[in-house]
Amino acid sequence: EIGYYQELEEYAAAEEKAQQLLALVSNTPAISQPHIIGVAFLYLADTLIYLGKQTEAITYSKLARKQFKPNSVNYAESLELEFFASFYSGNYPNAEKSIRQLLDNPNYPVSDYLRSRRRYFLAYTLFAQEKYREADLELALINAITQDKTGYNIGIRILSLLICRMLSDYELLKAREKAFMNDIERVRKHKAIRKRDLLIFSTIKELA
User: Fold this and answer.
1) Which pLDDT belongs to residue 137?
2) With contact defined as beta carbons under 8 Å apart, do 129 and 92 qualify?
C-alpha cells in the first residue's frame, strides 16, 4: 500500500501509511522483531526522501540499520537511503561516505549492475564537491549500466559533458556530445528509472 501511494506520487498518504505500519509492528508483540521494525523504518525513510524531509530520512535510515545484520541486503538499503537523503540535503561529504561504504565492502550481496549504479552515484557526489577528475575516473569504471535502457547511461553522458565543461576540455566535450545524442534516441521511450534517481540529474545541473 505504501508503494501504491508512492507510484501515485501521493507521498503524504504514503508517509501516513508508513507511520501506521511502524506503529503496528512496534506495538504488536507477535511481529515486533528487529528486522520487521527495520523494514518499517526503511519504508518511512524512503517516503520522507520524496517529501523533502531529508533530516528525518537520515534519522530513520540509521534507525533501520541498527535492526539489521551487517552485510545484509536491508543493511545496504539503509545506507543507500542515507546516501540519497544526504545528497539531496547538500551534505555531500556524508553522501560520499555512505556510498563508499557500500562500494568498499565486498561482503554486500550485489550484482554488477547495482555496483555500477552506486559507482555512478559516487561520481555525481564527487562532482558536487568539485572533485571533477575523481568523478571522471569513477565514470570510467562503470560498465554494467552503460548499455541499459532505463536512463542511467544518459546520466553518465550528462555528467561526462559537465566534467569536460568544468575542466575546459572542449575537444573531449565535442566527442562526448556526439555519443550523448546517440544515447538520447536509445532511451527516449523508456521510463523505468526511479524518480529519486532522476532528481540527481537536476541537482547536478543546478550546481554546474
Assistant:
1) 94
2) yes
| Of 102, 91, 100, the residue nearest 123 (C-alpha) | 100
DSSP letters, 180-206, are: HHHHHHHHTT---S-HHHHHHHHHHHH
pLDDT digits (tens, 9 = 90+) for 32-82: 999 999 999 999 999 999 999 999 999 999 999 999 998 899 999 999 999
Contacts 24+ apart (CB under 8 A), 25-30: none
Instruction: Quote the strand ranges of 27-135, DSSP E.
Output: none
110: Cβ contacts below 8 Å, ≥ 6 apart: 76, 102, 118
Q: Tell me the C-alpha distance between 13 and 118, whole Å.
A: 29
Q: What is the pLDDT of residues 121-162, one digit of tens each?
A: 999 999 999 999 999 999 988 876 666 555 677 788 888 889
pTM of the model: 0.81
Residue pair 201/155 in contact by the 8 Å Cβ criterion: yes
User: What's the rounded Cα separation, in Å, for the pair 172 and 174?
Assistant: 5
